[in-house]
Amino acid sequence: MLERLSASERRTVKIGAACAVAILVFTFGKKWYDDWSDVRDSLTATREKLDAIGLDEAKQKALFAIVPVFEMPKAEEQQMFLFRDKFNEQLKRAGIKSEPLQVLPLGKKKGEYRLLRMKCTGKGRFGQVLDLLANLKENPYLVGIEEMKIQCDPKKPQDQRQEVELELTVSTFVK
C-alpha cells in the first residue's frame, strides 16, 4: 500500500505516525512522571519526619528492649512443639514445679490462624510466679494469657502461705 503513494504522501504518513506516537508517549509519560514526582515528594517528607524524631542509638535500643519479640505462626505440630519447649524452659527458669502441659482443643479460626491453648498446673513460691509472669513476654510464640488462677492453702500458717498453686492457660496462633 505504501508503494502506491508518492514520496510526499509517504513522508506525510510517516510524520503523522511519529506525531501519534509522540502524543501517546507524552500523555502517558507525563502521568507517569507526575506520579513519580508525588512519590518522591512523599518520600522526602517522610524522611524529614524521621530525621525530626532523631533518636540516638541508646534510646533506640532501649525502645527495642521493651517491645515483645514475636515469631510468625507455623504449622500446628511445629508451632505446638516450639511453644511448649519455650514455655517449659520459662517455667524451669522461674523455678516452678509443673505437671506436663495439657494441650486444649483448638479454638475457632481467626483469619487464617487458629488459637492453640496450653494449660499448666504447678507449684511454687509467689515470687517465682511473679517472675514467670514478668518474663512471659520473652516467649516469641506467646499470644496471650487466657486464664490464670493462683491459690494458697488458707490452713497453712502465715509464714508458709508463700507456697502457691498455679493454674495458667497460655495461647499461641497456629496455621
Note down, in words, how this protein is organized.
- 49% of the residues lie in helices and 22% in strands.
- The chain is an alpha+beta fold.
- Strands 1, 2, 3, 4, 5 and 6 form a 6-stranded antiparallel β-sheet that branches.
- α3 (76-94) packs across α4.
Helix content: 40-55%
> Kindly state the mean pLDDT as a whole number?
85
> How many strands, what sense, and barrel or not for the largest sheet?
6 strands, antiparallel
Number of helices: 4
Structural class designation: alpha+beta
Separation, N- and C-terminal Cα atoms: 65 Å
> Uncertain runs with pLDDT below 50, 5 residues or more?
none
* Strand coverage percent: 15-25%
**What are the secondary-structure elements, in order, as H or E?**
HHHEEEEHEE
Number of strands: 6
Give the overall silhouette. elongated
Descriptive labels:
single chain, 175 residues, alpha+beta, six-stranded antiparallel β-sheet, elongated
State the gist of this model:
Helices cover 49% and strands 22% of the residues. The chain is built from four helices and six strands.
Summarize the helices and strands and which ones pair or pack.
Blueprint: H1 7-53, H2 57-66, H3 76-94, E1 97-98, E2 102-103, E3 109-110, E4 113-125, H4 126-135, E5 144-151, E6 163-174
Helix pairs in contact: 3-4
